[in-house]
Amino acid sequence: MACHLEEVAPWGRSFEEYRDLFRLEDADLERSILGVGDGPASFNAELTRRGGTVVSADPLYRFPPTAIRRRIDRARPGIEAELMANLEGYSWDYHGSVGDLIEARRAAMDAFLEDLEGGEHSGRYVAAELPRLPFADGAFDLALISHLLFSYSGRLSPAFHLQAAGEAARVAREVRIFPLLGLEGLPALDVAPVWEWLEGQGWTVTVEEVAYELQPGGNRMLRARFTPA
Ligand SMILES: C[S@@+](CC[C@H](N)C(=O)[O-])C[C@H]1O[C@@H](n2cnc3c(N)ncnc32)[C@H](O)[C@@H]1O
Fold first, then answer.
1. What's the gap in Å between 69 CA and the centre of ligand 1?
2. How many structural domains comprise the chain?
3. Is 178 part of any domain?
4. Candidates 3, 8, 46: which one to mutate for ligand 1, based on the most atoms within 8 Å of Cβ?
5. Angle made by CA atoms 164, 167, 169, in degrees to the nearest 5
6. CATH at residue 41
7. 139: Cβ below 6 Å to ligand 1?
8. How far is the CA of 178 from the centre of ligand 1 (A)?
9. Counting runs of H as helices and runs of E as strands, what totals does the chain give?
């Protein structure tokens, strides 16, 4: 069952946001990492610059860089207007203000765009989409999924969530997913079935608090680790 969100505006987070929302320690950054649905985030560009090993998989990378830049530029005013209109619907402790958030995201997406062409040539950006990923079993130490599973719980089906989590667990020995809220800010109903399914497959699953919050109450990630008996 292919399922991708063509209508999702391309909008990407910074390396620092990824580090905080996934609670990434220095030791984590030395592992081989897969970013699923990384879109125009700068995590790959920045981690590569720091000497890390990372691959990003997203259907967005099917488009040429010029088209991706156009889509980002088109999306920005609407996203900024939505944030301004709903200031009280967000927590500003982390970002400070809409202006600071927009500036951080602009810098992140510029870094991504600068890195994209070279990164595609070296295989760091792969056009692919859940629930099927073109990687071998256990190819990565750690898979990160930011603002895709659970965020779009209303639009991506429960079956898709299970297949997608299973696929991430096939290609990596640890999976972290953030946030656990849907776009409307309510706890995502898909968390419990995904949790139960992973535990049923022998994975150790925890929910951990993180030092990142934009959606009020959205400061927790799901962490699943496979530790063979
Ligand atoms: C809201 S953006 C989040 C981007 C990035 N992870 C971040 O947090 O900044 C969601 C991303 O999921 C990607 N996406 C949509 N459907 C997907 C699928 N089936 N598999 C992988 N990525 C998908 C979109 O192209 C988009 O880049």
1. 16
2. 1
3. yes
4. 8
5. 110
6. 3.40.50.150
7. no
8. 12
9. 7, 7
| Domain annotation covers residue 2 | no
Q: Which pLDDT value is given to residue 229?
A: 67
Which residue carries 């299973």 as its tokens? 166
pLDDT digits (tens, 9 = 90+) for 77-136: 998 898 999 999 999 999 999 999 999 999 999 999 999 999 999 999 999 999 999 999
Q: Domain range for residue 29? A: 15-226
Q: Is 146 in the pocket of ligand 1 (CB under 6 A)?
A: yes
HSE, CB side, 13 Å, CA atoms: give it for residue 134: 12
What is the Cα–Cα distance from 189 to 181, expressed in whole angstroms? 9
Ligand 1 atom with least separation from CA of 60? 25
Ligand 1 mean position to 38 CA, how many Å?
A: 6
Q: Is residue 29 part of a domain?
A: yes
Q: In sequence order, what are the residues at sequence separation of 6 or more whose Cβ sits closer than 8 angstroms to the Cβ of residue 225?
A: 173, 174, 203, 204
Question: Is 8 among the domain residues?
Answer: no
